[in-house]
Design brief:
Distance between the termini: 48 Å
Radius of gyration: 24 Å
Biased composition (Polar residues): 10-19
Helix content: 25-40%
Order of helices and strands: EHEEHHEHEHEHHEHEEHHEHEHEHEE
Organism: Lynx canadensis (Canada lynx)
Structural class: alpha/beta
Keywords: Disulfide bond, EGF-like domain, Repeat, Signal
Domain VWFA: 39-213, 227-401
Region (Disordered): 1-26
Strand order of the largest sheet: 3-2-1-4-5-6
Number of helices: 13
Length: 422
């Protein structure tokens, strides 16, 4: 019989782990494995908006996480800071003797009160929150900031969050529904946010937080045949700087596939004032060649038409004559700022009717109605807050392509008349 471990919740009461509710215990998740090599800074809101009760609840959550997750063979190291108007690093990452010493330090962190300046706290945490743990090069573990807050920020969070992510910090957010949108902006992705409904629901998030801390990106469809085409919006509404970010995103995604004529083929189309096939499916036979070619794709400017680009892909890219392979799943990934998508519904329907899956990645304050029509009835629309945040959505794209469910390329596609059909 599996052993079950129990732990008191922050109220200090006890009950069965089978019925987790107020005043009840829940089963403690397993320890983090030795392969989970991370440095984690917990950043706790300690402002008047969060309240003393909310701050104590956040401390109790961190204590539970530490007790449940850190074992003698753990390679994960933890630090704790609290903030309101200023940041106080109570425990720099890894600077404690053992778990009991860390817990004693947690108990001693005082409540601050005052304003909720989350943006300033993120900036300071990135600069000095990791203490002597901030090693460089290959010796540096994955660095993570876990923000716990129940109060909206009173200063700008977007800029400090972008700069923190640019330092290769993974930002995760834990909070109530009232701060969900802000946490998504800070972390760059809804997938990096944990929302709890009430005090005791918070403690049920420990296992999910462990998964987000220790998960690694899926490897891609390494052993699965695929014809994949990226369509990048290179119009004036996107601009050359953001187009370069799209190129970087496409390169990063291509790295996750085994590019060769027997497994994954990759093509690239760019569109602005006109449509250009940067390279076709059968142009490059290696991943290195694809990466170079994506970097060399031209920025076009002008007024873009996603519909024209998709029709071009249907007629001149996803065909046997241009290298598409019979019986191989097919996908098109469209990256767009939203303008020029109004005319795309019919071309995208033609592609889908011929067995080609289409994912639309809309960036910024996109035209949601137009993109929703473009994405179709299936779960094939991914919204990204900013172009800089594209890199945080690679996992979602890979899962869509390789997951085998909900909008991923159909595994039983064939070809009729030069085009794919199911």
């Amino acid at each position: 019989m599996e052993a079950r471990v129990f732990q008191k919740d922050w109220t200090g009461t006890t009950a069965s782990a089978h019925q987790p509710s107020e005043g009840r215990l829940t089963a403690v998740p397993p320890k983090l494995s030795p392969e989970c090599r991370i440095d984690v800074l917990f950043l706790l809101a300690s402002s008047a908006g969060t309240t003393l009760e909310g701050f104590l609840r956040a401390k109790a959550f961190v204590k539970r996480f530490v007790q449940a997750s850190l074992g003698e063979d753990s390679r994960a190291r933890v630090g704790v800071a609290r903030y309101s108007g200023e940041l106080m690093v109570a425990v720099p990452v890894g600077e404690y003797q053992d778990v009991p010493d860390l817990l004693r330090s947690l108990d001693g962190i005082p409540f601050g009160g005052g304003a909720t300046l989350t943006g300033g706290a993120l900036r300071q945490a990135a600069e000095r929150g990791f203490g002597s743990a901030a090693r460089t090069g290959q010796d540096r573990p994955r660095r993570v900031v876990v923000l716990l807050t129940e109060s909206p920020s009173q200063d700008d969070v977007a800029g400090p969050a972008r700069r923190a992510r640019a330092r290769e910090l993974l930002l995760l957010g834990v909070g109530t529904e009232a701060v969900r949108a802000e946490l998504e902006e800070i972390t760059g992705s809804p997938e990096r946010v944990l929302v709890y409904a009430g005090p005791h629901d918070l403690f049920r998030q420990t296992r999910e937080l462990q998964g987000k801390l220790c998960s690694r990106p899926p490897p891609g469809c390494q052993a699965r045949s695929l014809d994949l085409v990226f369509a990048l919006d290179a119009s004036a509404s996107v601009g050359p700087e953001n187009f370069a970010r799209m190129q970087s995103f496409a390169r990063s995604c291509a790295l996750r596939f085994d590019v060769n004529p027997d497994v994954t083929q990759v093509g690239l189309v760019v569109y602005g004032g006109h449509v250009r096939v940067a390279f076709g499916l059968d142009t490059h036979a290696t991943r290195a060649a694809v990466l170079r070619a994506v970097s060399q794709a031209p920025y076009l400017g002008g007024v873009g038409s996603a519909g024209t680009a998709l029709l071009h892909i249907h007629d001149r890219v996803m065909t046997v004559q241009r290298g598409a392979r019979p019986g191989v799943p097919k996908a098109v990934v469209v990256l767009t700022g939203g303008l020029g998508a109004e005319d795309a519904a019919v071309p995208v329907r033609k592609l889908r009717n011929n067995g080609v899956s289409v994912l639309v990645v809309g960036v910024g304050p996109v035209l949601r109605e137009a993109l929703r029509r473009l994405a179709g009835p299936r779960d094939s629309l991914l919204h990204v807050a900013t172009y800089a945040d594209l890199r945080h959505h690679q996992d979602a794209l890979i899962q869509w392509i390789c997951g085998g469910e909900r909008g991923s390329p159909h595994p039983h596609c064939c070809f009729r008349g030069g085009h794919s059909a199911c």
